[in-house]
Write a structure and sequence with these properties.
Elements lengths: L26 H13 L3 H9 L3 H5 L1
Length: about 60
């Protein structure tokens, strides 16, 4: 089984005040989502979007 790791920009992990956000997914749900993304060849698109910072995050 192919494993895909998606790296997240810090805005998805931390609030404006620096406190960590809850980003936990059930492992089974996570695996199913990744398999769907892989089936449609979307993992590279999602990966690139998650690495781009939000304009709102940059202004903070």
């Amino acid at each position: 089984m192919k494993t895909t790791t998606i790296e997240l920009h810090p805005q998805f992990l931390f609030d404006e005040d620096g406190k960590p956000k809850s980003v936990l997914l059930d492992y089974k749900v996570y695996q199913e989502l990744l398999e769907i993304l892989e089936d449609f060849g979307c993992e590279e698109i999602i990966q690139s979007r998650l690495k781009e910072p939000d304009e709102e995050y940059l202004e903070a």
